[in-house]
Design a protein that fits this description.
- By secondary structure, the chain is mostly helical.
- The chain folds into two domains: 59 residues, no CATH class; 140 residues, Arp2/3 complex 21 kDa subunit ARPC3, CATH 1.10.1760.
- It is built from nine helices and two strands, in the order H-E-E-H-H-H-H-H-H-H-H.
- Helix 3 runs antiparallel to helix 4.
- The radius of gyration is 27 Å and the shape is elongated.
Length: 225
């Protein structure tokens, strides 16, 4: 280890003498041996710090990828296992928030498009309610973007988080409530139209806020706040 350090210093000194650069208006060729040693130490230290930063970035990227694959996997397969909207809703919303804060906005937006499709494929939504899916997708996007925007606008504070969650849940609720009338026209049977109206009303707000609470607890445990 020490021999490698000495070799690195010697190479640095030779390179410095060869190029005859200037440091603080003093030609390196005129520098003393001690000054060259100090400069070599500094250069070696910078190289070590750069390597540490690169390794740290790789570690963070790996952790983010693991979180993304794990959480998106739950979002994909949960509707096939659990068929209770009041249970899957909070979990899915919590997953969207967790991916937003742990992985990033783009990943959260991608995953926001998945749950409603999986709910349809898994039987949580009847096939006849397929016209609902695009509206749920958009509402999830609005939910994620609202949280992201308000959290950063309010200086990445805990207050910003909760305002973002409540505002995002409210916006999601209002959008879905507004879309009920349009979706009802696409659904033939009146009883199904009533079911759509119920699904897109207060439960959407409640499950979104509940998801915010779950995500908050996980993020606090992970010391992300």
């Amino acid at each position: 280890m020490h021999s490698d350090e000495r070799l690195s210093k010697r190479r640095t000194r030779r390179a410095l003498r060869k190029h005859m650069d200037y440091l603080d208006d003093q030609p390196i060729g005129m520098m003393s041996e001690d000054e060259l040693n100090d400069l070599a130490d500094e250069e070696a230290g910078e190289s070590d710090r750069g390597q540490v930063r690169e390794e740290e970035l790789q570690r963070v990227d790996s952790e983010a990828m693991i979180w993304f694959l794990s959480l998106s996997g739950i979002a994909i397969f949960l509707p096939f296992v659990v068929h209770l909207p009041l249970l899957t809703g909070p979990i899915i919303n919590a997953i969207l928030i967790l991916i937003l804060f742990i992985v990033g906005l783009r990943s959260a937006l991608v995953v926001a498009l998945i749950p409603s499709i999986m709910a349809l494929a898994g039987g949580l939504l009847p096939v006849v309610l397929a016209p609902v899916v695009p509206f749920i997708m958009v509402s999830n996007l609005l939910f994620v973007i609202t949280i992201y925007g308000l959290y950063h606008r309010l200086d990445n504070s805990q207050k910003g988080y909760w305002i973002g969650v409540v505002a995002g849940a409210a916006l999601k609720f209002v959008f879905l409530l507004w879309s009920v009338e349009f979706v009802s026209r696409l659904v033939i049977k009146k009883e199904l139209a009533a079911k759509v109206a119920q699904m897109m009303s207060w439960p959407q707000f409640a499950t979104a806020v509940a998801g915010g609470v779950i995500a908050w607890a996980v993020l606090k445990f992970l010391k992300k706040f």
